[in-house]
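Ticket #4471: structure output looks truncated?

Reporter: J.K.
Steps to reproduce: submitted the chain below (605 residues) through the standard prediction queue, then opened the result file.
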Amino acid sequence: MINIRKLEAELWESADLLRAGSKLTSNQYCMPVLGLIFLRYAYSRFKLVEAEILKDRPVRGGRVLPVEASDFASRSALFLPREAQYAYLVELPENIPAAGLTNWRGEVMNSLGEVVNNAMELVEQQSEQLFGVLPKDYTMFSDELLAELLRIFNNSALDDVGGDIVGRIYEYFLNKFAKNIAQDDGVFFTPKSLVKMIVNVLEPTQGVLLDPACGSGGMFVQTGDFVEHAGMQANNTMTFYGQEKVEYNAQLCLMNLAVHGLTGVVKSGDEANTFYHDAHNLAGCCDYVMANPPFNVDKVKSESAQSAGRLPFGIPSVNKNKEFGNANYLWISYFYAYLNERGRAGFVMASSATDSQGKDKDIREQLVQTGHVDVMVSVGNNFFYTKSLPCSLWFFDKGKKEELRDKVLFIDARNYYTVVDRTLNEWNEWQIRNLTAIVWLYRGEVDKYRVLVEEYAETLGNRDFPAVLEKLEGQKAQLTAEGKEAAAAASRKEKKAVEADYAQRIAAVEDCILIAKEAVWLTEKFGEGTYADISGLCKVAPLEEIEAKGYSLTPGAYVGVAPAEDDGVDFHERMTEIHKELLSLQEESNRLMETISKNWEEMGL
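Returned output as attached by the reporter:
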């Protein structure tokens, strides 16, 4: 598994080099670094696809035919000319002027910065949507500094081409060097597990997808992965549109799309401020809308926003300055307004929006009464990379089955997550699939649930998941004991190798334990595939119940509290023990105080 924290530390080192070797501001040097990360990431993707192409490559005259740009286009991947390949740049000689290199125009290049600029231009020539996007100002760095940066980014961790890794790295840099941007209007990176959950619930396969706050493009990337996994080509079945007010984010989004072989139209700057512009004229036209908009934005000009339309349920409260004090329900209204007659929307929203009052409540009531609110999911703290706030996932579906028209599925997942470290939680891959399985059962899609259960069985080699879990935990205990004995018996020279060997074996068993636990979690609740309301986790509520609760969309208001698990401890017996312990501690405290008093008296104090 990729060690993202280690990778970020190395990127921070690169930023320190930039800061020491140039006079750039944090905003200026952020983008050149991201350009190098992009180039390295693109090269990883290029080598992966090249290997696939070469497997079935024809042979002419005893030689394998070389790969061409058209081969990559047919596989929705970005072709890299030799001079734009990261390995080529890393292996260049120190003395660039003596190498006699020329750029694509035939001009002699005399510095490494010129060579990197040329690489960026060559990449842009392979993709219309990248034209004018990549940074090309590397001549401001010395050859020594740039060569060191290239070395730092020549990191095998960037060979992991799945997901929005570039986006997370970008967020790290925003947090470190451009906090004024990172904190502007509440903008921050969308965690991968939340993006995957949104995509899994919406199940996009064909049509128009809009992200009106697209950031680094994570929604597009995960949608592309979902479509490809379904056996289709995303560029043939999906049309991606994005709006992003922050230019840096839009540039990264275009890079991210290109490196994943995806095409899309992304607008940025003032014309892409979704509060005031429907930049792509997509109101009522979208099959899918996905977004993680900035939360709790204030000072949005009410007259300008009303003129832009897309407010089917009226407007939130306006203050004396003719501004919206909180734009959450502007976003919610937009997401609904963009959908066509069978469209689906999924988005991240501040938890407070599920139960806010005043005009927000009026809008929420109208929204619920449409019957198009589909699923609501509560997410716990520490899911965001730089923020600790809880949030909710909202899902609309205008094409709901008739039997679900007047129902909403509520899921409270605040206590269901994996701890990554002290400040970060996430859903692991199996947890995302388990939560998605609840949605499948609510929709009556039992076959999908059973496929997942079968995958658990194949992965674990047994359908008796509790028995598998018990066996694996026994194996872990045995390996742990054996490891301690082996390390104790090993010589000082061999001890570290023995410990590392057992640590690796124990980690492999722990991975299987994790899967077994998730299999037990799912099947104990839903058996062979029958949806049931589970206290503390999920409930399907009819509109009458939602109305009775004041149109609250807070999952916790419906699912209740999970029953406390019996830990096998007798309460009264334990309280008696605690009382005795307290009395004992109190006696000990009194003895200590007497001793201290005597000592003071003897000292004459």
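Triage note (M.O.): checked the attachment and the full token line is present. The two ends are 65 Å apart (CA to CA).
Status: closed, working as intended.
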